[in-house]
Write a structure and sequence with these properties.
The chain is an alpha/beta fold and 141 residues long. The protein has one domain: Ribonuclease Inhibitor (Leucine-rich repeat, LRR (right-handed beta-alpha superhelix)). Helices cover 34% and strands 18% of the residues. It has four helices and seven strands, in the order βββαβαβαβαβ. A five-stranded parallel sheet has the order 3-4-5-6-7, with no helix packed on it. It is globular. The N and C termini lie far apart (37 Å).
Length: 141
C-alpha cells in the first residue's frame, strides 16, 4: 500500500505485488519529492509499468528523481517517460543517460527541463545506439 499526499489530500493506493499499473500520469498534479519517492519505492523489477508522466510538478528534488530513474531502469517493459517542465540537474541527466542506455525507449519528453545543449547531447547519445526506433523525443526549451 502506498500513501500519497498531494494538494492537501491523502491518496492511498494499494497495488498487488508486483506493481500492476501499466501507465501512470500525474502531470501537473502538484506532486512533491515525497510522492516521487513513494512511486519509486513501489516499483521493483517485476513491475509492468511502461509509461510514466510526472511533468510540470515542482519542487521535486534531484535525489528522488535519481532514485526513480534507477528503479525505472530495472523494468523490462518501461518505454516512455515524460518529465517536461521539471528543472533537471546533472545527476538527473546522468540518470537519464543510464535509463536510455539500459532500456529501449519509445518516448522521452524533456521539454522545459533546462538540461541545455550539453545535457541534450548527453541524453541522446545512448538513444542513437539503440536498435529500436524512438517515436517521441522532446528537448524543447
Amino acid at each position: 500500500m502506498a500513501s500519497i499526499i498531494s494538494q492537501g489530500m491523502l491518496i492511498t493506493l494499494t497495488f498487488p505485488s508486483p506493481f500492476s499499473l501499466c501507465s501512470l500520469n500525474v502531470e501537473n498534479c502538484s506532486i512533491t519529492t515525497r510522492t516521487i519517492q513513494k512511486i519509486a519505492d513501489a516499483l521493483d523489477s517485476r513491475s509492468v509499468l511502461s509509461h510514466l508522466c510526472i511533468g510540470h510538478n515542482s519542487p521535486v528534488s534531484g535525489n528522488a528523481l535519481v532514485n526513480l530513474l534507477s528503479k525505472l531502469s530495472t523494468l523490462k517493459r518501461f518505454s516512455e517517460l515524460n518529465m517536461s517542465g521539471i528543472k533537471l540537474g546533472k545527476p538527473v541527466v546522468d540518470g537519464l543517460c543510464q535509463l536510455a542506455g539500459t532500456l529501449t525507449l519509445s518516448g522521452l519528453i524533456l521539454g522545459g527541463t533546462c538540461i541545455g545543449n550539453e545535457g541534450a547531447i548527453k541524453v541522446t547519445e545512448p538513444l542513437l545506439k539503440g536498435t529500436e526506433e524512438l517515436v517521441k523525443l522532446d528537448l524543447s526549451y
